[in-house]
Amino acid sequence: MQQNPRAGREGDVLAVVSQSGPTVSFFDAASDQYLGAVDVPAEPHELCFDPTQRLLWCTTAYHSGYYHANSGRRTELTVIDPDTRSIVEIIDLSPEHGPHGLSLDTARHRLYVSVEGSADRPGGVVVLDTQTRKAVGRIDTDAPGPHWFAIDPAGTTGYATNKEAPFVSVVDLERGTLTGKVEVPGSEGLAVSADGEYVYVAGPYAMLTASDHSAEAPAPGIRVIEARTASVVDVLPTENIMLPVHLTSTGKLLAGEMRMEPDPVSQLGRQAPGLLTVFSADTRERLGGVEVGRGPLTITSSPDGRIAYVSCVSSSTVDLVDLETLRLLARLDIAKRGEPGAHGLAYVPRPA
């Protein structure tokens, strides 16, 4: 008999961003019970849980809208206590703006935040000390819009994906410098393998594929970058464009595929139910897929790698998927609470 995938999760919490709420909501990971929410500045995007400080970090990228259609960039990073469900501090990153991607180095107490470029500087990554909550550095990525950022397990190399620029930026975290560019035709989400040898990148840029219907349009798929040579060594094909990519603790590589259906009003179509596609990171074999809500935007997983959580911005839902059986366990309806636009996710284990 298979073990209940929810067993042993009592006291654990799933935090969910509603970018149009604007809120961060909290759900019991064992029962899916709604525990409450905290209001945050508009428009929140991504979340990162710091177990050493026991805090949530939340980026607020724009006043409204999204990457290529917004009313202006924000500058704030919100610090949240997930146990009391309250704001600890709002950090103003000015003059940096458009903070989005988050990556944490617990050993060095460093938080890396991707920020967009402006007239006087390229896009880059702001480095924060998680103990003092102060900015201690900036790394240029030589691209206007680094949107997602990830570091290797050693905490020495970082990778920024760039929607419009035709490369992934490679940075030396110890020296704080750009060291390489890996050719990718616009890139979205990414994940780094547990040994740091490979980087998995969703490509191409979603809007590039949507607007280019020619035979020469780049095919969607996960680009596998070898860290040693800083080059693409494989492509794991997908049927549709992707934004989020996530690697579980058990070595399963998850991708959120966007699917479209005809729309009489728009040539681009409209969002159809999305697809969670599962690969083995070791063999690079496709293991299967599960239909999820409309517009999968962020993926995370439980610490044991058993459950995937997929937030879908257009349907404003979070789907819970059993990764052993590849079946849908539950769907959290974020919009029911008047908080549309599900986006960032973080799994928060119960206090020790």
Automatic annotation (TrEMBL):
Spans through the membrane: none
Native source organism of the sequence: Streptomyces atriruber
Cross-referenced Gene3D superfamilies: YVTN repeat-like/Quinoprotein amine dehydrogenase
Record InterPro entries: Host-pathogen_enzymatic-act, N2O_reductase_N, WD40/YVTN_repeat-like_dom_sf
Protein name: YncE family protein
UniProt-listed PANTHER family: DIHYDRO-HEME D1 DEHYDROGENASE (PTHR47197:SF3), PROTEIN NIRF (PTHR47197)
